[in-house]
Write a structure and sequence with these properties.
The complex is a heterodimer. Chain A is mainly α. Helix content of chain A is 73%, strand content 1%. Helix content of chain B is 24%, strand content 45%. Chain B is built from two helices and six strands, in the order E-H-E-E-E-H-E-E. Chains A and B meet through helix 6, helix 8, strand 1, strand 2 and helix 9 of A and strand 1, helix 1, strand 2 and strand 3 of B. Strand 1 of chain A pairs parallel with strand 2 of chain B.
């Protein structure tokens, strides 16, 4: 036997062996799949339930069937999302089942739904699903980033909350399955990279479009120096502490004395005295709260001047801090 | 009996005057303290055609004011994590706002500092 004959026999044997190997790459139809991939339902079972829903005439039973169908889609979408996060080896089968049941619901909705807008929305969602399937196949190896996952989680929670509220509060007449399919498609999309990117864009766009109000009747204030800010903080802290002391019988008289001392010293300043008069306080006052609130109003008045008198304010603040301890 | 009217004040800080978030923070603290008022909003505005940050304050005779922390954030997720971190430090989240730091528009979270014990 020649070398050529030997080679031909080896090739023939290899061909026979490969023909006998099971075709593992070929996916089983969803109806024939076992539940081991984690899907919550098969395409066939979902279609049966959908047929029951379509044929039901009792409003209460129809609502229950609708809720069941919605719950199944939510659950399958959740399983798909979880498998995506965990990179489950069954993710392709799970996604296949999800697309199948979404298509059953959405395809029927297009034929039933009245109103051009709803049809357009569902139609676009369906296209997105189909495109999503391709994108999923092509891009699944893309490295996901945590920010996109976070965005997905946040958006999914938002869409799911709306779905559950509608399920609980609305009967089938107000919120039929056909309408729910729009939200369910959005729920699926919220858990995709495309959806997350889109939401990021929407967020950024919304923020970019935030109207910048034209402010009228307000003049620009100069920014604070460290000293101004510290002086203002120390002064308001001192007045807040005196307020606490005024509320306690044991410290009330002492606090009142301190407030009287503050006002007495400020009365000596000819620039500040008119503001004390306008606030209707003097060192003769014996009510600590009247003195404290009067001092707050003096400070407010100086800040509200046009332009604000920060020099006087700093003087007032220094006197308060020096006499309050 | 009538409800006492709430008095509010608004201050605007020119974008070109605010060179950092810290400058904005101390300016807000000064004005909270001087007006004895709680800050309630921070927004981007224009004043005479120029970008500015407007802060609105509401008078409160009894509140402890003047101690704020500003934190820049990028998106909602970032905001949530920053709020969680500041809350763990006993800082109270007040509101989300927007400001100009220089000519840059920034989103900020406003917190009340932890009260001194």
């Amino acid at each position: 036997m020649s070398f050529a004959h030997h080679a031909a026999l080896i090739l023939l044997a290899l061909a026979c062996l490969s023909a006998g190997t099971p075709a593992r790459a070929q996916d089983l139809p969803p109806e024939l799949k076992s539940d081991s991939d984690g899907s919550v339902i098969t395409k066939g079972a979902f279609r049966t339930l959908k047929t029951d829903y379509d044929g039901e005439t009792d409003a209460a039973k129809k609502t229950l069937l609708r809720n069941r169908l919605i719950s199944i889609v939510i659950a399958q979408t959740d399983v798909n999302f979880a498998s995506y996060q965990k990179k489950s080896r069954h993710r392709r089968a799970i996604l296949g089942t999800l697309f199948d049941i979404l298509e059953i619901g959405t395809g029927t909705a297009i034929s039933i739904t009245n109103g051009a807008r709803a049809k357009t929305v569902i139609s676009e969602a369906l296209d997105a699903e189909r495109l999503g399937r391709q994108a999923f196949n092509k891009n699944f190896s893309l490295k996901d980033t945590q920010i996109l996952i976070n965005k997905m989680v946040a958006k999914r929670a938002q869409v799911q909350a709306a779905l559950l509220t509608n399920m609980e509060q609305k009967g089938d007449a107000q919120y039929p399955l056909q309408t729910a399919m729009i939200d369910l498609a959005a729920y699926y999309k919220a858990g995709t990279i495309d959806g997350a990117l889109e939401n990021l864009n929407i967020d950024t766009g919304a923020e970019a479009q935030q109207a910048i109000r034209v402010l009228e009747g307000v003049k620009l204030s100069k920014p604070a120096t460290e000293e101004e800010a510290a002086s203002a903080r120390d002064s308001i802290d001192a007045l807040a502490n005196l307020n606490d002391e005024l509320k306690v019988a044991a410290t009330k008289d002492d606090a009142t004395k301190k407030l009287k001392a503050i006002v007495a010293e400020l009365e000596k300043d000819k620039d500040i005295a008119p503001f004390l008069k306008a606030a209707n306080i003097s060192s003769a006052e014996t009510d600590g709260q009247v003195l404290r609130k009067g001092l707050l109003n003096v400070r407010r008045a100086l800040r509200s001047l046009d332009p604000p008198n920060f020099d006087l304010l700093n003087r007032v603040n220094r006197v308060i801090v020096n006499n309050a301890s | 009996m009538s409800t006492p009217q709430t008095i509010k004040h608004t201050a605007a800080y020119a974008a070109t005057d605010i060179d950092s978030l810290h400058t904005l923070e101390i300016s807000l603290e000064r004005d909270e303290a001087d007006w004895a008022a709680r800050i309630i909003s921070l927004e981007q505005v224009t004043v005479d055609g120029a970008n500015a940050t407007a802060a609105t304050y509401q008078e409160d005779d009894d509140a402890r004011v003047g101690h704020l922390t500003l934190s820049e954030y990028t998106d909602d997720i970032d905001a949530h994590s920053r709020i969680a971190i500041h809350s763990a430090n006993k800082e109270t989240f007040l509101f989300k706002g927007a400001a100009f730091v220089g000519d840059k528009a920034v989103k900020v979270l406003v917190f009340r500092e932890k009260p001194k014990s």
